[in-house]
Structures are given as C-alpha cells and as structure tokens.
Design brief:
Blueprint (H helix, E strand, L loop, with lengths): L6 E3 L6 E3 L36 E2 L10 E2 L21 E2 L3 E8 L2 E8 L4 H12 L6 E2 L2 E5 L2 E6 L33 E3 L3 E4 L11 E6 L1 E3 L5 E5 L1 H13 L7 E2 L6 E6 L1
Parallel strand pairs: 3-11
Antiparallel strand pairs: 1-2, 4-5, 6-7, 6-17, 7-15, 8-17, 9-10, 9-16, 10-13, 11-14, 12-13, 12-15
Length: 261
C-alpha cells in the first residue's frame, strides 16, 4: 500500500487540496512528502486570500443514537505496530482532552465525539498505545489560504499509517448532496482535522489549522486546538519551512514527544 502526505495549492489559490495518510489508491499530482531542493526565501509576499468568497463549515448533525459501530479495515504496512480500536458501542457524546507535548512546546487539543465518533475512537486508541510518541510533524504549510501543521506519521515520511483505515465523518457526512461536499469552505483557525488522500482513506495523520484555511469539506473535523496550543503553532509557523518555501518540513523540527489522552 502506498501512502502519501501531500499539500497541493492551485495557482489561483481557490482550489486548495490536502492529502495525507491514504488507502491503497494514490492521489494524482502528488509532490513528495518532503522537498529535497526548495527555492530560496524571497521578500515578495503573496496577497491574502479573500475568504469571503468561500462558505463556512455546516452545522454538526445531532446524533440519532448514543453509540455507533465503526469499521477499521486492515491495511499494510503499519508505520508502527498497534492494535486497531474497538468497533462496537462507540460513544457519540462528550469530549476527550489530549495533551500533545512537543519539542516546540505544548499543544493541547480537545476531541469532539459528536463531530466524529469513529475518528475520536481511533485517535484515543492510538494515543493510549503510544503510537504518536516520538513522532515528527513532517509538514508545515504557510501559503495564504492553507496554513496548517501536519503530524501523525511515526515514520516521518508522510506515507505512514496505523495499519488500518476508516471512513470520512463530519463535515463530509453533513451534506445530503454529495456535489455540495466538493465546494471549498473555510476551516477556521483552531480546527483539528484528519489528513487523507481521498474519501474514506483516513489513518493516523492529522493537521492543525493555525490560520483560516480553504479546503473542500472532505477532511474530517474532530476537535479544536487550545489557545496555548495555537500560540505554540504560531511560533512554529513563524520559523518557516526548511529552505524558505511555503510547503515542507518545519525549519524548527517538531517532534510529538507524547500524546496523553
């Protein structure tokens, strides 16, 4: 199975696509997970993206039951061996606080079961098994309209996953018309979401939004980032990308030392 973690930006900055831990299908037009030769930093700043041109994330649908069943089909290889999460009687209410201790400072996050119960179930299971411990955040993107830090691959290659995948949840599932789920919306600062390489290819890679970003609603939102965590992300972003580009490894390496749920 080939996995990739690519961030693609359209020339018009209106079609911004995030790709991450995937299933067996490889997304088209993917750049490498890291860049071996990057352009030198320039003094020219790109104009800010007009976010008013894009919609907002939809309302979170209220659950019809107290629990759901989840599916985590096996995929190989795993970046780090772990057991898959439980699949039955998964709670759909409540939140889970997770403390990410990183080499650049703490990033506390809150996971929301109502938004994405199967995603939260997986992330909590991975954290409790130490899957994220000592793993790098392999990609920082600083382009206008797509400003995120991507983590969750212990291999650091941008292609690693936990040995299983699972389906998209909110916001994808909030649309009754699938065509509407292709229209870019604003993922606001402080959003926590899953990276993927196409529908239902979620694994372990996630991204932290430190400035309002525009994406099609095909990336599962499963929580929020604390204000102190955003301060850490702001400092990481200020350090820029290796080589001075807008997309690549953070110039100041970020290691998730532990994830405590």
């Amino acid at each position: 199975m080939n996995r990739t973690a690519a961030l693609l930006t359209g020339l018009s900055a209106t079609a911004l696509v995030l790709a991450g831990c995937s299933g067996s299908a490889e997304p088209a037009a993917q750049p490498p997970a890291t860049t071996s030769s990057t352009p030198a930093a320039t003094t020219t700043q790109r104009p800010a993206l007009d976010l008013s041109r894009f919609g907002a994330l939809p309302a979170v649908p209220q659950p019809a039951t107290d629990t759901v069943s989840c599916a985590y089909p096996a995929e190989t290889p795993a970046a780090k061996e772990v057991n898959p999460p439980p699949v039955d009687a998964v709670d759909v209410f409540g939140t889970v606080d997770v403390a990410l201790a990183t080499s650049q400072g703490p990033i506390d996050i809150t996971l929301d079961r109502t938004q994405a119960p199967c995603t939260v179930n997986s992330v909590v299971s991975l954290a409790q098994q130490g899957y994220f411990d000592s793993s790098p955040c392999h990609r920082l993107t600083t382009s206008p309209g797509l400003e995120v830090l991507q983590c969750g691959d212990p291999s650091g290659s941008g292609r690693g996953g936990p040995g299983y995948s699972f389906a998209n949840e909110y916001p994808t599932t909030a649309y009754t018309d699938p065509a509407q789920a292709e229209n870019p919306v604003v993922y606001p600062r402080g959003t926590l979401a899953m990276a993927n390489a196409g529908p239902d290819t979620n694994g372990s890679q996630f991204f932290l939004v430190y400035a309002d970003s525009v994406l099609p609603p095909q990336y599962t939102v499963f929580g929020t980032i604390s204000e102190s965590g955003l301060a850490t992300l702001d400092a990481i972003a200020a350090g820029g990308v290796t080589g001075g580009s807008e997309d690549g490894a953070p110039a100041n390496p970020v290691i998730v030392e532990s994830a405590t749920a």
